[in-house]
């Protein structure tokens, strides 16, 4: 597919709103409209060679889903459908939501589980993000002193979201476009 696919899991709707912002910033020429993972078939996701995936922050060591307190199906329920697929050649960037004050000991940690899932199936992971400018104690979503994707806090730092999105999208667009060009 010659566009970026945007897929998200959500519970309260915040991740969906960020996915819509991402789509608005990228525009229809670069990306397709975001899709909720609980309404997505695996072949729809696999149709794209460049992906932006979003996750809410639920649970303590697993993907967000029904067992972690989400009211609707989420990444936990979608993950088994990827079994047996080789995602080599796909480039994936992640964004994750969290609350630095309330969940300071596990801020945006759900991203690491999505990272491991897609990396484990052979996807090339791009879009790492700096940890400066955040106030938290711990996050499992940090490798080599960087978040594995863009961490956003819509509760305590909503005023920084738009700027962070613009900077991150400028970074990842150059990383995702080669995957789109190869598919064309």
How many discrete domains?
Answer: 1
> What spatial form do the alpha-carbon principal axes imply?
globular
Low-confidence stretches: none
Q: Within the CATH hierarchy, at the fold level, what is the topology?
A: Rossmann fold
- In total, how many beta strands? 9
Proportion of β residues? 15-25%
**Main beta-sheet strand count, sense and barrel state:** 6 strands, parallel
CATH superfamily: Flavodoxin domain
Radius of gyration: 15 Å
Number of helices: 5
Q: What helical percentage do the residues reach?
A: 25-40%
CATH class: Alpha Beta
CATH architecture: 3-Layer(aba) Sandwich
pLDDT averaged residue by residue:
92
Q: Label the structural class.
A: alpha/beta
Order of helices and strands: EHEHEHEHEEEEEH
**Separation of the first and last Cα atoms:** 7 Å
């Amino acid at each position: 597919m010659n566009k970026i696919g945007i897929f998200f899991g959500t519970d309260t709707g915040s991740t969906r709103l960020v996915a819509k912002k991402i789509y608005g910033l990228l525009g229809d020429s670069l990306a397709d409209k975001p899709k909720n993972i609980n309404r997505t078939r695996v072949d729809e996701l696999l149709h794209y060679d460049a992906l932006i995936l979003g996750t809410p922050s639920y649970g303590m060591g697993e993907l967000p889903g029904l067992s972690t307190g989400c009211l609707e199906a989420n990444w936990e329920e979608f993950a088994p459908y990827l079994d047996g697929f080789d995602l080599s050649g796909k480039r994936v960037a992640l964004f994750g939501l969290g609350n630095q004050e309330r969940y300071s000991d596990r801020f945006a940690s759900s991203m690491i589980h999505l990272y491991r899932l897609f990396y484990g199936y052979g996807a090339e992971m791009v879009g790492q993000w700096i940890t400066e400018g955040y106030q938290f104690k711990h996050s499992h979503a940090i490798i080599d002193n960087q978040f594995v994707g863009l961490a956003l806090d819509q509760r305590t730092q909503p005023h920084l979201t738009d700027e962070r999105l613009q900077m991150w999208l400028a970074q990842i667009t150059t990383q995702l476009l080669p995957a789109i060009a190869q598919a064309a």
